[in-house]
Specification:
By secondary structure, the chain is α/β, with parallel strands linked by helices. Helices cover 36% and strands 20% of the residues. The protein has 2 domains: 18-142 and 180-246, Vaccinia Virus protein VP39 (Rossmann fold), CATH 3.40.50.150; 143-178, no CATH class. A 7-stranded mixed beta sheet has the order 3-2-1-4-5-7-6, sandwiched between helices. Helix 5 packs antiparallel against helix 6 (156-164).
Length: 248
């Protein structure tokens, strides 16, 4: 009989997700043989949730979009893990009221803190929801990559705004409310009482190179992304920053 001790998530590993999955797999291996309680904040249609459920873990996805949650439910059913995936409608700012304190082993909070009203409050809610020894996978938009991206495309005014704006925005029409560098992302979690163990860059090259290059040799691209993900200065130039932290 398959159990969480013999199964590992096997999602389609891509250049955009390889660095995150590398960290998550190490965490699952640390708890081999246990069914973990996982919370995916802003988990949408289940790109991470369904593979984790397939690995034998119980996953709750909190997302503000009913359409995304409907797609998640269908995806979980098609994968045969509907009994291990729970969909809850809500947003990150309401997290404290949606999750019991000290009830979760692993929290994913990917591309959420860029859009919530109060990132510090969300970080506090994440810390409170974790059991002692529990961990959080935080993924946030990187400021440096956004500055370079605007500049490379000739939008010098937007690049300057991103560089100097306290929240890393490119003006009122910017769809994101804030961006981070490694120091500010780490500080957010340490202030909430968590111990940061790893910091990686995600999509160091994937958004800079032509699609033909990225798709021409996918494994070589994944290998290079993984090699650069924790190495300075490349880490800090990534489109997203991944911070993995634990509750003492």
């Amino acid at each position: 009989m398959d159990t969480a001790s013999t199964r590992t998530p096997r999602p389609p590993v891509t250049v955009r997700t390889a660095a995150v999955w590398a960290v998550l797999r190490r965490e699952l291996e640390r708890h081999a043989g246990r069914e973990l309680t996982v919370l995916d904040v802003g988990g949408g249609t289940g790109g991470f949730a369904v593979p984790l459920a397939e690995a034998g873990h119980a996953v709750t996805v909190v997302d503000a979009s009913p359409d995304a949650l409907a797609a998640l439910t269908r995806r979980a059913a098609e994968a045969g893990v509907a009994d291990r995936v729970r969909a809850v409608q809500g947003d990150g700012d309401a997290l404290a009221g949606l999750v019991a304190p000290g009830s979760v082993d692993l929290i994913l909070c990917h591309a959420v803190l860029e859009v919530v009203d109060d990132p510090a409050r969300v970080a506090d809610a994440i810390a409170a929801a974790l059991r002692p020894g529990g961990a959080v996978s935080l993924l946030v938009a990187g400021r440096a990559a956004a500055v370079l991206g605007r500049a490379f495309n000739g939008h010098l005014g937007a690049a300057s705004a991103l560089l100097t704006d306290p929240d890393g925005r490119a003006g009122q029409r910017d769809p994101l409310r804030r961006r981070y560098d490694a120091e500010s992302a780490v500080a957010l979690l340490t202030t909430a009482g968590l111990t940061v163990e790893e910091t990686h860059g995600v999509r160091v090259l994937a958004d800079l190179l032509p699609a033909a290059v990225v798709e021409g040799d996918p494994q070589a691209m994944i290998d290079l992304e993984l090699a650069l993900s924790a190495r300075l200065p490349f880490r800090d130039l990534a489109s997203q920053l991944h911070v993995f932290a634990r509750r003492p």
